[in-house]
Every structure is written in structure tokens, then in C-alpha cells.
Design a protein that fits this description.
The complex is a heterodimer of chains A (241) and B (365). Chain A is α/β, with parallel strands linked by helices and 241 residues long. Chain A has a domain at 10-97 and 159-238: 3-Layer(aba) Sandwich (Rossmann fold). Helix content of chain A is 36%, strand content 24%. Chain A has 10 helices and 10 strands. Chain A has helices at residues 49-56, 79-84, 102-109, 117-127, 129-132, 144-156, 174-189, 201-207, 225-230, 232-238; strands spanning 10-17, 26-33, 38-42, 62-69, 72-73, 87-90, 162-166, 193-197, 210-215, 218-224. A 6-stranded mixed β-sheet of chain A has the order 6-7-8-3-9-10, with helices on both faces. A 4-stranded antiparallel β-sheet of chain A has the order 2-1-4-5. In chain A, strand 1 (10-17) and strand 2 form a beta hairpin. Chain B is mainly alpha-helical. Chain B has a domain at 37-290: ABC transporter involved in vitamin B12 uptake, BtuC (Orthogonal Bundle), CATH 1.10.3470. In chain B, helix 3 crosses helix 10 (293-308) and helix 6 crosses helix 7. Chain B is globular, with a radius of gyration of 22 Å. Chain B starts with 10 loop residues before the first helix and ends in a 10-residue tail after the last helix. The chains are: A alpha/beta (241), B mainly alpha (365). At the A-B interface, helix 2, helix 3, helix 6 and helix 7 of A face helix 7 and helix 8 of B.
Chain lengths: 241, 365
């Protein structure tokens, strides 16, 4: 699927950001995500993939550049404001409230939702049947894969336009990785745009429409996921072929 | 939409879960056995001390729940908790009588033109209690005032520190400074002389099983249970309470979920302020109003919160009773003078930190 003609849902332009003062991790990164599109960001460790998601979501200040969501400038807006505008984020670790029940975790995902909570809850639980039967259990007792599903469910509770996913397959068994990617495809098929940061480049590119390769905090390559999968440089650097 | 497949945890996850549960039972089982055994023994051998311990435990539980809420949401040790309790108790006294001390020792000045005791029948004793409905009105008004005071202190002091991204040590030191300020305020306005809400003899009530308690202590227990029940419902049944628990669990994820964390912090101070006020008034009713009592209570309060597991409200509730009962019953032993009461709390604190640092209800991180 190529959606380069329509205005992008999420547009990141020349963003510069970093943790320590005057030390930049991102040196002018640009990406776009269109409605209903699934975009992968791959690259080696330290390329700035997770940093980019944190900068988009307002958890890290962008020193330069611009971030637009649905055409509106949202650079350095607070996370709770971005959630209201239709952006959700699933961090790689610590992505559930361990002492809250599964149901309470999902309710917290919909904290600012005024109406339609019950319907949305049913939809999310139908997407993750493993959680549906255990809704009163504490999230801290879940396995890694189930936690990841709960984290996805929490982020979906507000019916976001764009979902930012930071390495959802990290530390999971191959079977769990397949399950997680299966769910991500289902979420995308419902029309949610997805920006997926992944170490598992082959798996990510096999499910995404387009991809970006970051290296040293800069855009290195971009294009259709299939062409990146077939790209010799990408294969050599990130997929061990 | 395709029908999603269900999954089950793999064998490794299941084994790890079993191992974790078994470890929890082994480590916590001994402590629970010791607590239950000690309480049962006290019920037969030291019934009077046990009764006082339960009353003190209820007060400590109220204070510790507030303390643990603040620790859970704001992640720092609130050293001004005990002094806030005592300042609240004096505010209630001011609302009742309108009196502060004068510039010279022994002289008194009426500060408020109208007081609660001016209301008809406000100081006439209810049932067998030593006080009238005025004290209950004063306690409720003080809860509102203390909630406002704690929110105000947060705005002036702690919020500025949060914005500067200060470390937890800075927060703790700031709260210690505020504790000194509060104690000084008490000394300036009410002096060092201990006071009572209502002077005179207190009626004793005989209960079944040869238990005898002061009527006021029954009120303390009932008030503590009602307030604790309200806080429990708030924390576990309301959206606000769940957001507080979510913030205590993972503040970053709360922010990511769209929760307005500043608003939750404000509400946390307001709820903690109400708990502080009720605990302070009940403490003064059980003992007396004393500028030094708040700081002395800090150790049992922290012991109670740590016994339950810092940041865990149910744990703080149980911890309050454990510390209160142990303190009161332990000093009935011949080898332990009542003067060492607070050292019992200290011993419990050290024991828990050595044996089970996450407390009775704390989750393994």
C-alpha cells in the first residue's frame, strides 16, 4: 500500500533531540505515517529509534524540527495532550501497571474517555481473548507476551489514529512474536496507523507497508517494505544475510 | 476482523510464576504466623494492652495510609506527616475554642470571634463520650482546611522542586524543614503546654469477654474504620483512586496513558490532608494535644507503612495495627519499660527491612 499522495497523519521533519544537554541523539530525522499505514523503523542499536518515538510523544524535547499530527503542529506537546489528539504509545518495558488488574489497566488507558467505555473495552478484549477471561487478575502476574498484549490493549482504549510501538517483540519467544505481530496486523487492518520500532528487522518489514532505516541518528534509507527486505545493504547490515 | 487465537504462558513462565509464589509464601509465612500468634496470645494474656493497641493501631493506620499514598504517588518520604497531624489537631482545637496563647506565658488571647463551641449544645457530651458534636464538626472542618493546606504547601514547595527535577533526598529534606516549621507554628500559637479537647473524667464502657474501653476509644475506632472504608472505596472503586494507584505503580506510564498527573498529585495531597486531619484529631483525643507528639509519632508511622509495604494502602492499614498492638503489648513485659514504646516500633522497622524489605503486601519489583 502506498499513500504518499494523501496528507500524512503523522509528519516528523528534521527533528533534532537528545537526552544530555548539547549531545544530540537524533540529527534531523524525518518520517511520515499515513492513515491506515504501518511503517517500520529499523536500525542498529543506538541508531535513535526509541529516542525518536519519545521525541514524537513529547517525552523528550525536540531541540529543532517539527512534528505534525493530522496537519497540526504538536512539537513538544505534553503526552496527555497528544493522547487527546489521537496518538498512543506503547513503551518497550514497564508498559503495564503491575499492581492494577487487567481491567483497571485498560480503564487507565481510557482515562480521558468520557463515553463508550464499555463498547471499547469489549472490542479490545475481543482482540485479546487471553485477557478477557482474566480481567480481575493483577497485570504483574502476566507472562511477557500477555503483558505486551495488555500494553497494546491499553494503548487502543482511546481508539487512536496513530499507534507508536517500541520493540513489541523484545524478549518474547518466537511463538509469542508471531502472536504479537498477528495482533498488530489486525489493529492496522481496522484503520489505525502504526509506527513500529523493531530490532527484528525481517519480521517488521514483512508486516509493514513502508520502512525507514536509521543509523547514527540520521535517515539512512527509506522505501517500500518489500524493497527494503530485498535491499542488499539492509540485508547485510540488519538481517545477517 | 479475523478471530484472534488464544495463547497460554510457556513452561518457563509458569515455572517462574510458581517459584515466585512459593518464595513469597515462604518469606511472608513466618511473619504472618508471628503476627497472628502474638495477637492471639495477647488476646488471652494482655487484653487491656491489646485493646489500647488496637485503638492506637487504628490511628496509626489512618496516618500510615496517608503517608504511603504520598510515598506511592510522589515517591518521597514525607517527614512532615506527624507534625502535620498535630498541627491539624491544634487547628481543630482553635476552631472549637478560638483560643491562642498570648505574648506572655500563661496568658491567652481569643483569636476567633465565633467558635464551634458557641453553637447550641456543641460542647454537651454525646452518649458516654467526653465531647459533644462540636468536636466532630471541628474534625470535618479541619479535614477540609488541612486538605487545602497540604495542596497549598505542594504548590509553594514541592511542585517547584518537581519542576526542577530535584532528587528524592531534596524532597525529604524539604519535608523535614516543613516539619520544623509546623512544630514552631504550634509552639508560637499554642505554647508547649499539653492540652485536652475536653478536660475531666472519661467514661469507661464494659464490653463482652471482660474487655473494658473508654467510650472515646470506641469513637476513635469507629471513626478510623469509617474513614478507612471511604478511602478504600475511593482508591479501588473510583476513577480518581485507580489513577492514584496507577501513578504509584508507574508514573511515566500514567503520563503516557493521558492521565493528568498534576491533577492526580493535587488530589493525593487533598486526600492525604483529610487523613492527616482525622488521624491528628483522633490522636489528640486518645492522648493529648502536644507540640512534640507529632514528631515522636513519625517513627511508628513509617514502621507501619514499611511493614505493609511502602506505597501499598491495604498494607499500611494492616501495618498500623501490627505496630500499634506490638508497641502496647510489648511494654507489658517486665524487662521493657513503657518509656521504650517507640523503640519497639524501631525494632519492628529494622526487622521488616532485614527479613522482608518490601513489606507484608509489597510486590517484588
Amino acid at each position: 500500500m502506498t499513500k504518499t499522495q494523501a496528507a500524512p497523519l503523522l509528519e516528523v521533519k528534521d527533528v533534532v533531540a537528545g537526552y544530555a544537554s548539547e549531545v544530540d541523539i537524533l540529527h534531523g530525522v524525518s518520517i511520515t505515517v499515513h492513515g491506515g499505514e504501518m511503517v517500520a523503523i529499523i536500525g542498529p542499536n543506538g541508531a535513535g529509534k526509541s529516542t525518536l518515538l519519545r521525541a514524537i510523544f513529547g517525552l523528550l524535547a525536540a531541540r529543532r524540527g517539527q512534528i505534525k499530527l493530522k496537519g497540526q503542529d504538536v512539537t513538544n506537546h505534553a503526552p496527555n495532550e497528544l493522547v487527546l489528539r489521537g496518538l498512543s504509545y506503547v513503551p518497550q518495558v514497564d508498559n503495564v501497571f503491575p499492581s492494577l488488574s487487567i481491567l483497571e489497566n485498560l480503564e487507565m488507558g481510557a482515562f480521558i474517555r468520557e463515553e463508550g467505555l464499555a463498547e471499547r473495552l469489549e472490542y479490545v478484549l475481543s482482540l485479546f481473548p487471553d485477557l478477557a477471561g482474566r480481567r480481575g487478575e493483577k497485570a504483574g502476574k502476566l507472562s511477557g507476551g500477555q503483558r505486551q498484549m495488555l500494553a497494546l490493549g491499553r494503548a487502543l482504549m482511546l481508539d487512536p489514529n496513530v499507534l507508536l510501538l517500541d520493540e513489541p517483540s523484545a524478549s518474547l519467544s518466537p511463538k509469542m512474536v508471531d502472536m504479537i505481530f498477528d495482533r498488530i496486523k489486525m489493529i492496522n487492518a481496522e484503520g489505525t496507523g502504526i509506527l513500529l520500532v523493531e530490532q527484528n528487522a525481517r519480521e517488521a518489514l514483512s508486516v509493514c507497508h513502508r520502512g525507514y532505516v536509521l543509523a547514527m541518528g540520521e535517515n539512512r534509507l527509506e522505501g517500500e517494505a518489500k524493497s527494503l527486505l530485498d535491499n542488499e545493504e539492509v540485508g547485510k547490515l540488519y538481517m545477517g544475510t | 476482523m479475523a478471530t484472534p487465537q488464544t495463547i497460554s504462558p510457556n513452561l518457563g513462565d509458569r515455572l517462574r510464576g510458581f517459584q515466585r509464589s512459593a518464595g513469597n509464601i515462604a518469606a511472608g509465612g513466618g511473619l504472618w504466623a508471628a503476627i497472628i500468634g502474638f495477637t492471639v496470645w495477647a488476646a488471652f494474656a494482655e487484653r487491656d494492652a491489646l485493646t489500647v493497641g488496637i485503638v492506637l493501631g487504628a490511628i496509626l493506620a489512618l496516618g500510615a495510609v496517608g503517608l504511603t499514598l504520598i510515598f506511592g504517588v510522589l515517591k518521597f518520604a514525607h517527614f512532615a506527616h506527624g507534625d502535620s497531624m498535630m498541627l491539624s489537631a491544634f487547628i481543630a482545637w482553635l476552631l472549637l475554642n478560638g483560643i491562642i496563647v498570648g505574648e506572655r506565658a500563661g496568658s491567652e488571647t481569643t483569636l476567633l470571634p465565633v467558635t464551634i463551641n458557641d453553637l447550641p449544645g456543641a460542647d454537651s457530651a454525646i452518649w458516654e463520650f467526653s465531647f459533644g458534636y462540636g468536636l466532630i464538626v471541628a474534625m470535618l472542618l479541619t479535614a477540609v482546611l488541612t486538605a487545602g493546606m497540604m495542596v497549598g504547601i505542594d504548590r509553594v514547595v514541592y511542585r517547584r522542586l518537581r519542576r526542577r527535577k530535584s532528587g528524592i533526598v531534596i524532597f525529604a529534606i524539604a519535608s523535614l524543614g516543613l516539619a520544623f516549621v509546623m512544630r514552631s507554628v504550634i509552639l508560637i500559637f499554642w505554647g508547649p503546654t499539653p492540652r485536652l479537647y475536653t478536660p475531666g473524667i472519661r467514661n469507661r464502657i464494659d464490653l463482652p469477654f471482660d474487655v473494658s474501653v473508654l467510650a472515646d476509644q470506641l469513637f476513635i475506632l469507629a471513626a478510623a474504620f469509617v474513614v478507612t472504608g471511604i478511602v478504600y472505596v475511593m482508591l479501588f472503586r473510583t476513577k480518581l483512586g485507580k489513577a492514584m494507584r496507577a501513578m504509584a505503580d508507574n508514573p511515566d506510564l500514567a503520563l503516557i496513558s493521558g492521565i493528568d498527573t498534576d491533577r492526580i498529585i493535587t488530589w493525593t495531597w487533598a486526600v492525604a490532608g483529610c487523613l492527616i486531619a482525622v488521624a491528628g484529631v483522633l490522636l489528640a483525643l486518645q492522648a493529648h494535644l502536644d507540640s512534640e507528639l507529632g514528631f515522636a509519632l513519625l517513627l511508628p508511622l513509617f514502621a507501619a507503612a514499611i511493614v505493609g509495604g511502602l506505597g501499598n494502602p491495604q498494607g499500611a492499614l494492616v501495618g498500623g495495627f501490627v505496630v500499634g498492638i506490638t508497641q502496647e503489648v510489648a511494654v507489658t513485659f517486665d524487662f521493657l519499660s513503657p518509656g521504650y514504646k517507640f523503640s519497639v516500633a524501631f525494632a519492628i522497622l529494622i526487622l521488616i527491612l532485614l527479613v522482608r524489605p518490601r513489606g507484608l503486601f509489597g510486590e517484588r519489583s
